[in-house]
């Protein structure tokens, strides 16, 4: 149930905030496949990358609100970690409906990772954003994971109704028309190196394309092996923070058993915009989820990812402060 009261801030209009748009020189999908495969094989015992037709993502195990990842592809970074450190900026409350005007897309499909709508629940949470807008119609399949208590690492899950489209603090979204078409399919099994699935892809992109920005977004299916995620503690709003290490003390870390599904984005290079270069939130059909870190069973892990490649990158509400690097 919502916990609205007059103490919560009004929603910011993202159209009135600083916006930086970067037109990307998007390489052909086959070139990205060729670029990333050697690095994937350095980190995983088995790895493949190919161009395929996107499966219907409205079907299990993904259960998204749209079928695909194609059309007006855009990776969007909103806010940053300075909205958390040294203290939470509760005024940083946004609404995904503003992205309709910012992107000019209709239909507009939004997937990715962000902080949940604090005024709706009264506590902070990890939001798995999944919204489709066609005209004035909104279909909201967003999951939010929150902690039951300060001391016990047990999370609970709530779904958002169609009329609750807010989020807070920071977000990393992949937006598109939700059409089906050609996408990158990346499969990795048995991790032998130190890098997570998303970080391995990002470092492969950076190594090959250097300072050119390659931005991708999509879905990950973890078919085998457990993964480590975090969910924020209820005390996050009460304790001032000075560093990323202090923030870690206000997180509960838990393991998710397979299968689990994640949505999010990867950006190869930060041109000085305080970007979060990789960000995925996971969900399951067992009401568990959170912010993805890495797998904890490298000998059995299997990832399958489907990614669209962005034609544009958009930064909204950039902080002027030096950003703490958190992945």
Helical stretch count? Answer: 5
Shape label: globular
Question: What order do the SSEs take from the amino end to the carboxyl end, as H and E?
Answer: EHEEEHEHEEEEEEHEEHEEEEEE
How much of the polypeptide forms β-strand, as a percent range?
35-45%
- The low-confidence parts are 1-6
Distance between the termini: 31 Å
* Rg from Cα: 18 Å
Question: Which structural class do the helices and strands define?
Answer: mainly beta
Number of strands: 19
**Helical amount:** 10-25%
Provide tags for this entry.
mainly beta; 327 residues; nine-stranded antiparallel β-sheet; ten-stranded mixed β-sheet; 19 strands; 40% strand; disordered N terminus
Q: Please, could you describe this protein's structure?
A:
By secondary structure, the protein is mostly beta strands. 13% of the residues lie in helices and 40% in strands. The protein is built from five helices and 19 strands. It has helices spanning 29-43, 99-103, 118-121, 197-209, 244-248; strands spanning 19-23, 44-53, 74-79, 93-95, 108-115, 126-134, 137-140, 143-147, 155-159, 166-176, 182-191, 215-224, 227-232, 251-256, 260-267, 278-283, 289-295, 302-309, 312-316. The chain is globular.
